[in-house]
């Protein structure tokens, strides 16, 4: 059996690493790793951490790139690789441009696609943008749908996906997180602060010009709570950085850093008291470490976390963010309720379930090389 995994961004690298390792350990499985390098430096750190070396590296990242340019480059580069390798199945993850275009390229070659993290839906085609439509289109192209939760499975069934094509497996990000959180690590002295850490990330494309309220809320929080330190690894997108420097005030308890590698970020998240983010993956990761998450968005494709009480949507206004975060800072019982809520996103065995499913289908088949 030959399995090809295609990835290109840091989140894909993190979430697919434990699955790739699991497949590579399985006798009779030949694994081929393709890195489009839609992200470069941040993804390279992840691949190094997990000891993964791509068989193909397209190195497409440019200082200024658009979804259109990324799509065209991947489509042109991937076709010949699929022809040469002839995998039995191609695995993609999530909702990136790499994942969507790779699914389409594989479909054109009539190669089955396995979609890891299938069925997530926010219900708004423009939020997150373009990720919401990417994942919907991947699910229409895929043969195997690896859903995180039963709610994701229900989304797929509602869109006409056959029940036998869907398996609920949890999320591979929990596999990666638990592995990484157990690795030995010495904190950077600059970030080894006393008191309560509020870890912040913002990067969503659709939020870029709506972040003033988020940053003004942070300014007020550090003034109000002397025990609170904000640590903010800022995304490399220059538009994000421009908004940060425009609205977030300089303060001794606001530490702005370059993006952290996954090992350091995981251990920082583990030590954090709260997280404020517009990321998707962190909504699943931080609750696995018993850290409450406040989501600076108006909707989420992970409503299971909101129902479970591990996350809370704050929107993007200063007033709403302040009110919601103050509740857990002022009332210990409100904090405990979020921190101790059961995380609905998995038990650390998602990769094994995917591997077993693929082996049961493709073991013994002649791959087309």
TrEMBL record:
<dbReference type="Pfam" id="PF02350">
    <property type="entry name" value="Epimerase_2"/>
</dbReference>
<dbReference type="InterPro" id="IPR003331">
    <property type="entry name" value="UDP_GlcNAc_Epimerase_2_dom"/>
</dbReference>
<feature type="domain" description="UDP-N-acetylglucosamine 2-epimerase">
    <location>
        <begin position="23"/>
        <end position="358"/>
    </location>
</feature>
<protein>
    <recommendedName>
        <fullName>UDP-N-acetylglucosamine 2-epimerase (non-hydrolyzing)</fullName>
        <ecNumber>5.1.3.14</ecNumber>
    </recommendedName>
</protein>
<dbReference type="GO" id="GO:0008761">
    <property type="term" value="F:UDP-N-acetylglucosamine 2-epimerase activity"/>
</dbReference>
<keyword id="KW-0413">Isomerase</keyword>
<dbReference type="InterPro" id="IPR029767">
    <property type="entry name" value="WecB-like"/>
</dbReference>
<comment type="similarity">
    <text>Belongs to the UDP-N-acetylglucosamine 2-epimerase family.</text>
</comment>
């Amino acid at each position: 059996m030959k399995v090809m995994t295609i990835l290109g961004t840091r989140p894909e690298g993190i979430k697919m690493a434990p699955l790739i390792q699991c497949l590579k350990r399985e006798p009779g499985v030949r694994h081929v790793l393709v890195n489009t390098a839609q992200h470069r430096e941040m993804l390279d750190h992840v691949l190094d951490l997990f000891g993964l070396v791509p068989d193909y590296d397209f190195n497409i990242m440019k200082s200024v790139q658009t979804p259109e340019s990324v799509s065209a480059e991947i489509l042109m580069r991937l076709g010949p690789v699929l022809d040469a390798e002839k995998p039995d199945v191609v695995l993609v993850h999530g909702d990136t441009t790499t994942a969507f275009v790779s699914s389409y390229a594989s479909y054109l070659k009539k190669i089955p696609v396995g979609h890891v993290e299938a069925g997530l839906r926010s219900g708004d085609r423009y939020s997150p943008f373009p990720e919401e439509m990417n994942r919907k289109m991947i699910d229409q192209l895929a043969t195997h749908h690896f859903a995180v939760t039963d709610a994701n499975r229900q989304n797929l069934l509602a869109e006409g996906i056959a029940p036998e094509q869907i398996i609920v497996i949890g999320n591979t990000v929990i596999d990666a997180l638990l592995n990484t959180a157990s690795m030995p690590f010495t904190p950077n002295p600059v970030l080894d602060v006393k008191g309560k850490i509020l870890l912040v990330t913002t990067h969503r494309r659709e939020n870029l010009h709506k972040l003033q309220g988020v940053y003004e809320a942070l300014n007020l929080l550090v003034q109000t709570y002397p025990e609170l330190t904000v640590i903010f690894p800022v995304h490399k997108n220059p538009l994000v950085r421009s908004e940060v420097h425009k609205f977030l005030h300089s303060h001794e308890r606001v530490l702005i850093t370059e993006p952290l590698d996954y090992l350091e970020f995981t251990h920082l998240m583990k030590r954090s008291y709260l997280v404020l983010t517009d990321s998707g993956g962190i909504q699943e990761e931080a609750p696995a470490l018993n850290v409450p998450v406040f989501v600076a968005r108006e909707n989420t494709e992970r409503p299971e976390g909101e129902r479970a009480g591990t996350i809370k949507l704050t929107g993007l206004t200063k007033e709403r963010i302040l009110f919601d975060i103050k509740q857990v800072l002022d009332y210990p019982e409100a904090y405990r309720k979020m921190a101790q809520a059961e995380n609905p996103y998995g038990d650390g065995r998602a990769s094994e379930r995917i591997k077993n499913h693929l082996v049961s289908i493709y073991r013994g088949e002649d791959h087309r090389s």
